[in-house]
Amino acid sequence: MDHFLYRDGSLYAEDVPLAEIAAAVGTPFYVYSTATLLRHFRLFDEALEGTEHLVCYAMKAASNQAILKTLAQAGAGMDVVSEGEYLRAKAAGVPGDRIVFSGVGKTAAEIRTALSGGVRQFNIESEPEMQVVSAIASELGVTAPITIRVNPDVDAKTHAKIATGKSENKFGIPIARASEVYALAASLPGLEVIGIDVHIGSQLTELAPFELAYRKVAELTEQLRSEGHSIRRLDLGGGLGIPYARSNEAPPLPVEYGALIKRTVGHLGCEIEIEPGRLIAGNAGLMVSKVIYVKSGEGRDFLILDGAMNDLIRPAMYEAYHDIVPVIETAPGAEQQPYDIVGPVCESGDTFAKQRNMPKLTAGDLVAFRSAGAYGAVMSSEYNTRPLIPEVLVHEDQFAVIRPRPTFDEMINRDTIPAWL
């Protein structure tokens, strides 16, 4: 469920008509619903009720400080994968003891920043990384809490570019080597081993891969405890998918996911961490764009929008599907026709949909890309010297620009011309 609904023939974000935002900030833009963000966070929090737990929002999905602050005030922790994300979370008021630092390539500078500013734990991905954390923690005179990410060799049955739990993926250590790696961790100064981390991928639409991975983690927990390690926290990652195409069968609900966690690892007495991102932010955001031209081609018509692949790259990068709907509601029974829906960038890949049935549209009409809240704004760029588009947050009948569109002068003046030119 989201809070983007038609009312009086126009698409609204909560109690604000999208056309009103478009008139104020121009197109294209991203818009997020506070009510949807909070609802989705609370679904996960309630799903783990009765267990000691922390829901850490995977902020790589959408990292605007206004979104982070909204979730943090509701009790969320944060899962970060870079120094920039760590500093962004801190700037949004998230305390270090609610920030989990993940990522396969943490640099010494990033580790130092997190140890100096406070961190809930590092999810360690390799022995070399563990040794660097140990050395820096010892130098600073602090103890670094760590989990070790194990790769359970489980096929998440998702897109190859977002699968992370198979043996050929770059993430974690092979679960078969866990005993020796945990033994190394226990021998190094400056480290406190507190648990196990696992994450098998993103946009999972069934529970079976989670169940297989979590049962392996449960067995490993008991094995490591028998070897003398204090395993008291299980970081189970994220990855639960969302319904991008609304005609498709819906992925499992957070309550079903929570029941699976309790069933597979609940008997271990561990604190549980989960790191959802897409399911919290995905359906909480839209991208709104305007039709520039309707062009007739050879055997097909094109809707040319002012939004492009640099604004929403998921279709070009992942062959991702997004529902695209008119902002002015279509009358029941209105004639539809197929369009190729494209942007203005000089790339054939700048295509959002091919032969998508839509009502007849004309230049100036607004369309909304549903399920664009996750991996939309955060993956955008200024390709073709196109400004990053505004982000807008709605709360009931109010809206605020939370990232303004830069001017061309601001963009161009970031360049520095060498003296010899």
Please explain how this structure is put together.
This protein is an alpha/beta fold. Helix content is 28%, strand content 25%. The chain contains 12 helices and 21 strands. Strands 4, 14, 15, 16, 17, 18, 19, 20 and 21 form a 9-stranded mixed sheet that branches. The longest helix is centred in the middle third of the chain and has 19 residues, at 208-226. It is globular. The termini are far apart.
Question: What does this entry show, briefly?
Answer:
The chain is α/β, with parallel strands linked by helices. The protein has helices at residues 18-25, 34-47, 65-73, 83-91, 108-117, 127-140, 178-187, 208-226, 254-265, 278-281, 314-318, 408-412, and strands at residues 4-7, 10-13, 16-17, 29-33, 53-58, 77-80, 99-101, 121-124, 144-151, 173-174, 191-197, 233-235, 271-274, 285-296, 301-305, 324-326, 336-342, 351-359, 366-369, 391-395, 398-403. The chain is built from twelve helices and 21 strands.
Kindly report the name of the CATH homologous superfamily of the largest domain: Alanine racemase
Low-confidence stretches: 158-167
Report the C-alpha radius of gyration, rounded. Answer: 23 Å
Q: Which CATH architecture of the largest domain?
A: Alpha-Beta Barrel
The structural class is alpha/beta
Total helices: the number is: 12
The main pleated sheet reads as:
9 strands, mixed
Structurally, the number of domains stands at 2
Beta fraction of the residues?
A: 25-35%
Strand elements, count: 21
Tell me the distance between the termini. Answer: 56 Å
Mean pLDDT: 94
Helix content: 25-40%
Which fold name fills CATH's third level, the topology of the largest domain? TIM Barrel
How would the global form be characterised? Answer: globular
- Supply the CATH class of the largest domain: Alpha Beta
